[in-house]
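Whether sequence alone determines local backbone shape is best considered at the level of individual chains. When preparing material for the folding task, we compiled for one chain both its residues and its backbone structure tokens. The sequence in question and its structure tokens are set out directly beneath this paragraph.
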Amino acid sequence: MRIPKQDALNWYRFFAELPEGEALSPRQEELKYAVLRQLEDAAAARRQPLLERLRHPKTLGGRTLYVGPDERFPKGCGSCLHGTGLSAVRRTNRCDANCPFCYDYGQLDCQPPIGDGLWEIGGGRCYAEDLPLLLSASRKPTGVAYVYLEPMLEIEQYYPVIRAFHDAGVHQHLYTNGIRCSEEILKALGESGLDEIRFNLGATNASDHVIGMIAAAKRYIPQAGIETPMTPDFEAVFHRKKAAILATGLDFINCAELHLNDNNIVNYWGESLYACRAGYISPVWSREITLRMMLEAEAESWPIVVHDCSNMTKFARDLNLCAKEGGWFGRTTYGMEFDSFPFEAFLPALEDDSLPFVKEEPLPPGYRAGDIVI
């Protein structure tokens, strides 16, 4: 169903006005998904000219897109896309930043604790001294990632855990905003066996301190880079500080496509949004920023990897993880991160003249304005 844009706008306006909790009928669901497909195709068509200008794109076996030297591609991403997925290790339920793109925006002060002395690993909880048992009783992961929320707030607790995974031969990467980072901490992380550190440079508007910490990290940790959602604010500050950032000797920039949920969408209300495979909802401009950065890296021969960590990459990640867990063919948990579908949030995209639908066909009988759609 190639629904015309005006019909799409009319139907989404109607759906947005329905009482909260009222379910759509099967035909109304068809219309809902027809609009999502049209918006996804429109977003893809708008970025296609950027993709076609890439001279040497690489795909890591068809699962993502990047440019730059293969040896600098983050090994944690390789584990995520071809290994046993993103095995999250969580401990810290607090943060010292308040980023508009954070999935927990507005909820940072009420994040549930993991438990006194406990670590959440694979959804279960254990003490650090339980790791030998865990590693002997479970299939060893190809990699783990230290996430949620800011590890530097209690980084001393992480060293023995990092050492245990290192001794077991597990690749480890850690995410940080870098605010509390120091050379002493980076040295201790390297000595503990951390393989890779990723700085969310957008969290501090590319502060000079964090840029300096990226350079320091390269002295102690095998791989150091940036991973941050692509927003217009980050694109602007990156270009103001590009020379200093590239001079750090970093290995990669993971350009995360910003995706939204009930918490952070308020900060991007009014932007043109699309949904990838009826899953993650993102501003159309986010991946376009990534592709512009990749083109710039090629044109200027940056000696680093610029990685398109897009919604499609997340889709591939989830397919890989589900398959590794023994899921049936095609199984995935990739999906929309909203409690109820945000019809109103898509109205700006349907009113955006710069986002035309690629192909339109008249609606069939039973779906047109004035028809009773049940």
Observations:
- The chain has a mean pLDDT of 96.
